[in-house]
Amino acid sequence: MVAKMKNCPSCGRLFVPLTGAQKLCPDCMDKLHEKEHEVVEYVRDHPKVKIAELIEATGASENMIKRMIREGRFIQTGVKMTYPCEKCGAPIVQGKLCPKCAEALKKDLAGAAKKIASAAAGRGGFGGGTGKGPRPTNGERPSSFRSEREKQSEKKPSTRYRGLKK
Questions:
Q1: 67-70: which pairs have CB atoms within 8 A and are 24 or more residues apart?
Q2: How does 118-130 read in b/e, with b if 16+ C-beta sit within 10 Å?
Q3: How far, CA to CA in Å, does 53 sit from each of 67, 68, 105, 128?
Q4: Residue 127 to residues 117, 124, 142, 164: CA-CA distances in angstroms?
Q5: Could you tell me which residues come within 8 angstroms of residue 143 by beta carbon, excluding any fewer than 6 positions away?
Q6: CA–CA separation, 69 and 80 (whole Å)
Q7: Which residues contact 10 (CB under 8 A, 6 or more apart)?
Q8: CA angle (85, 90, 94) in 5-degree steps
Q9: Which helix (H) or strand (E) holds 91?
Q10: How far apart are CA 67 and CA 90, in angstroms?
C-alpha cells in the first residue's frame, strides 16, 4: 500500500510520512529536534529558569516547551520544571490537570454516568425500542423507523373491493 502525501504544516512542502504519527517533513523534524536539544541544554545550564526566560533565551515556542515538560523531558535532565494546571493554575509537572482538579473531574464524570444510567433504567434501557417506558401523547412511536407490518396495520380499510366490506 502506498502512503499518502501530505503538506508539512511548518514549511508547506510535500512529503510522504514514514509513520502515521509523522506530522512534519524530515527537514522540519530535524530543525525541531535541534531546537529541543538547544532547550534541554539551556535548562541543564540554568536549572532555575522560568518558562518565559526560556522562551526569550532560546526562541522556542511556549507550546513546545509545555509539551516537553508534559513528556517529562526535563525530569530526565534532573530539572523539575512546572507549568500551570489548565483549570486552576496550580503548578504541575505532567499532564494537563493537577491531582485535585483531576479528582474533581473524575467525581463529576462518575456522577453524570450514574445519572445517565438511572435515567436509562427508568426508561427500560437504552434506545427506547423495547416498548416499555413513556410514549408520546400524540400516538407516535419514539422511533421514526417502523416495520412494514406496523405501517399496514395503521392503514384504513381498502375501498377498492366494495363487496368485501365486513
A1: 68/36, 68/39, 68/40, 69/93, 69/94, 70/94, 70/95, 70/96
A2: eeeeeeeeeebee
A3: 17, 16, 32, 58
A4: 12, 9, 9, 41
A5: 128, 129
A6: 9
A7: 24, 25, 28
A8: 50
A9: strand 91-92
A10: 17
Mean pLDDT, to the nearest integer, of 150-156? 65
Q: Is 84 helix (H, G, I), strand (E, B) or coil?
A: strand
Q: How many CB atoms lie within 10 A of CB 74?
A: 22
pLDDT, tens digit, 9 for 90 and up, residues 96-120 = 888 999 999 999 999 999 989 888 8
Nearest to 52 by CA among 65, 41, 40: 65
* pLDDT tens sequence across 66-83: 888 877 777 767 777 777
Residue type, 42: Y
The label of the residue with cell 493554575 reads 89
Question: Residue 95: what residue type?
Answer: G
